[in-house]
Fold this sequence. Notes:
Elements: H1 3-23, H2 30-37, E1 40-45, E2 53-54, E3 60-61, H3 63-76, E4 82-87, H4 92-97, E5 103-104, H5 112-116, E6 120-122, E7 127-129, E8 131-136, E9 150-155, H6 159-170, E10 175-180, H7 183-191, E11 197-201, H8 202-211, E12 218-220, E13 228-230, E14 233-235, H9 239-257, H10 265-268, H11 274-279, H12 286-289, H13 296-303, H14 307-314
Parallel strand pairs: 1-4, 1-5, 9-10, 9-11
Antiparallel strand pairs: 2-3, 6-14, 7-13, 8-11, 8-12
Helix pairs in contact: 3-9, 3-13
The structure holds glutathione.
The site of glutathione has 20 residues, from helix 6, strand 11 and strand 13.
Amino acid sequence: xxxxxxxxxxxxxxxxxxxxxxxxxxxxxxxxxxxxxxxxxxxxxxxxxxxxxxxxxxxxxxxxxxxxxxxxxxxxxxxxxxxxxxxxxxxxxxxxxxxxxxxxxxxxxxxxxxxxxxxxxxxxxxxxxxxxxxxxxxxxxxxxxxxxxxxxxxxxxxxxxxxxxxxxxxxxxxxxxxxxxxxxxxxxxxxxxxxxxxxxxxxxxxxxxxxxxxxxxxxxxxxxxxxxxxxxxxxxxxxxxxxxxxxxxxxxxxxxxxxxxxxxxxxxxxxxxxxxxxxxxxxxxxxxxxxxxxxxxxxxxxxxxxxxxxxxxxxxxxxxxxxxxxxxxxxxxxxxxxxxxxx
Length: 343
Ligand SMILES: N[C@@H](CCC(=O)N[C@@H](CS)C(=O)NCC(=O)O)C(=O)O
């Protein structure tokens, strides 16, 4: 081969290489795959009242389900284009690693091991939670420190199981572990008296209590023994998709902060407020930069709503759980919800 041809081949390879990295963001496969498939594969829990539960007709609802719906809304302009993949605690991460799901939205705690050992990445914390204890009112316990010697039901494959061991060891207390592989069996174990304490994320305990035969006979102790920052997770190899899932949540929080709701979205499109203009894509083309459309956030707010609307109807005052907003309130209203600006 003459040196000119060799040079041309080398040049061709170089151009192809540069094009790969300049035109498409590194490994931007997920959005493309989701669009081609026409449906989002979203990993949720097998059934956690308030977060992801299925009714008799097979319809999913809950706080984690709304995140799936919001991602589908921005991609397809249709929040119903979701295939829900129910996963128990131990199978949830491999489903993401193997590509069986595009996003995991399943009351999952953001921890370092889940990022550096499992190759996953959390996009944001969309629910600030903590671990607590559910006990029978008749036990007359006031604090978790009174639980020495208790029989504790816990679901395995969770941070809950690990925190439980730490808490009892640190406080020099003993407990009998009643391990359950599914939430259903943990609840059954507690309801039937196999254990006298059920431990889980406090948000989960609110939903679980409603499923017991006599909800009023049970209380959640005031102790919060851990930090459980819950949020969606994706694979680490696709920055474009990571950004989409992350900004879906931030758009919902910013919309609440700006007072833009599913009902006022059409007025918001005519707003003079520069922050609202950027949110709804009248100014800026951030949506297109992410591989979406200019109205990427409008689609979310119209079909799903802002963060506050979702919170209240799934787990807050408009739901049977009635969990107070607490620290999941906006930063300027006494909570710690804080979304970076859209600009
Ligand atoms: N946030 C904790 C606990 C999550 C978890 O799996 N909790 C159980 C008990 S409430 C659950 O949601 N189970 C429902 C299921 O397995 O589908 C974690 O990420 O490990």
